[in-house]
Amino acid sequence: MHAAAEDGPVVALFVLDPRLLKPAGSPRVAFLYRTLRALDADLRDRGGRLHLHRGDPRKVVPRIVRDFGAASVHVSADFGPYGTRRDAAVQRSLGDVPLVCTGSPYAISPGRVLKGDRTPFKVFTPFYRAWREHGWPAPARALAGRIEWIDEPGIGIPKDPRLPAGLELPAAGEDAALRTWRTYRRSALASYPDVRDRPDLDRTSRMSVYLKWGAIHPRTMLADLGPGDERFRTELAWREFYAAVLHAWPESAREYFQPELAAMEYAPSSSDDFDAWRAGRTGFPIVDAGMRQLLGQGWMHNRVRMIVASFLVKDLHIEWQHGARHFMQHLVDGDLASNQHGWQWTAGTGTDPAPFFRVFNPVTQGRKFDPDGDYVRRWVPELRAIDGADVHEPWKLGEPPADYPAPIVDHAAERRVALDRYTAARRR
């Protein structure tokens, strides 16, 4: 916006791209529309408004440029696989009109933090050291003065798609993002290192959705962090690391970063087990609580994301891509780089791989990170009559709940199967 305003009168344009809308689930699409409404309201406060068009940006953007005789097009650089190709195609279609990329949704744009030999990092810890040493600018200043706007006809912001019954979405827009961040800094940031793995306490920032949709910039958050906030700063860096990896290896959005493990034997995704996992009916309470939170909020606690991912890949032996796709359909904060590489990390097939032979035990994980069972009882109402940590093993009770399923697999047995298959794949 700064760069565009310096060039002259501005048309604030957003193109609804079917290529991006089609694979997105209704929670993500609804939150996008709500974010656009909030942005439109902010622009109207400044005398402008947001103009929407639907279609292929390669055709829509040049048409708007021709209609108004625009001298330049200003965007924030996109480093994802599709976004990179799209922006290059838009630039070609614009001819002599420049596509000006100003900044990116990252503190440091992907591709800038490199090893000494100018190759990209594959391991997080050295990336983090280089990322911190590189540093980043301060947040952009507030816009000064009045922007000269150009009005043009466009479509209205669509109505929200039908959402699953009971789904709760957070408030959208920049004001909501800044309000959420201020509240978190004041009330919970100091305790983050101690409680970040506890889904029962619900003390994480919930800022991932605002980072995903650009309602807040990571530099804004980084500027507010002090020396004692290193753990939180590291988590912001993971987002930047995965974006850099995906930029360097765009095929890793769909393919194995550790290709030898693609040869492992896997179970089909068209199975009752996969259906039970998606519905939160596996008989393992911490897994089911996480999957139901996903359906109920379009979000899941990060520790629980790792637990349910490990269960799908290493207990049910279903390839990580199927779980990653399910997450992207339901997560409001679904970010391609973080989601795909988070799944690959847990599956043991990605960067900094947690060794494949580290298999999360869902009972042990539940007892450790939900010690009183509060998280499970919140999301699995069939188990609310069970007190304390016993909720993590309801099948051991004298009278297990009649309306809750027995475990669909024997974890110890499936762990051995996973390790045997891993060993066989590594020998090939």
Question: Any overview of this molecule?
Answer:
- The chain has 428 residues and is mainly alpha-helical.
- The protein folds into three domains: 2-103, HUPs (Rossmann fold); 107-138 and 174-248, Serine Threonine Protein Phosphatase 5, Tetratricopeptide repeat; 252-427, DNA Cyclobutane Dipyrimidine Photolyase, subunit A, domain 3 (Orthogonal Bundle).
- Helices cover 48% and strands 4% of the residues.
- It has helices at 2-7, 18-21, 26-45, 57-68, 81-94, 124-134, 174-187, 192-195, 208-212, 218-223, 230-248, 272-279, 285-297, 302-315, 320-330, 336-347, 362-369, 374-379, 411-427, and strands at 12-16, 50-54, 73-75, 99-101.
- Strand 3, helix 5 (81-94) and strand 4 form a beta-alpha-beta unit.
Task: State the major sheet.
Answer: 2 strands, parallel
- Average pLDDT confidence is 95
Q: What is the CA-atom radius of gyration, in angstroms?
A: 23 Å
Q: Could you estimate the helical fraction of the residues in percent?
A: 40-55%
CATH topology of the largest domain: DNA Cyclobutane Dipyrimidine Photolyase, subunit A, domain 3
Secondary-structure arrangement, i.e. CATH architecture of the largest domain:
Orthogonal Bundle
Shape: globular
Number of helices: 19
H and E order: HEHHEHEHEHHHHHHHHHHHHHH
Strand residue percentage: under 5%
- Name the CATH superfamily classification of the largest domain: DNA Cyclobutane Dipyrimidine Photolyase, subunit A, domain 3
Quickly name the level 1 CATH class of the largest domain: Mainly Alpha
Strand order of the largest sheet: 1-2
Look at the helices and sheets and give the structural class.
mainly alpha
First-last Cα distance: 54 Å
How many domains, in number, for the residues? 3
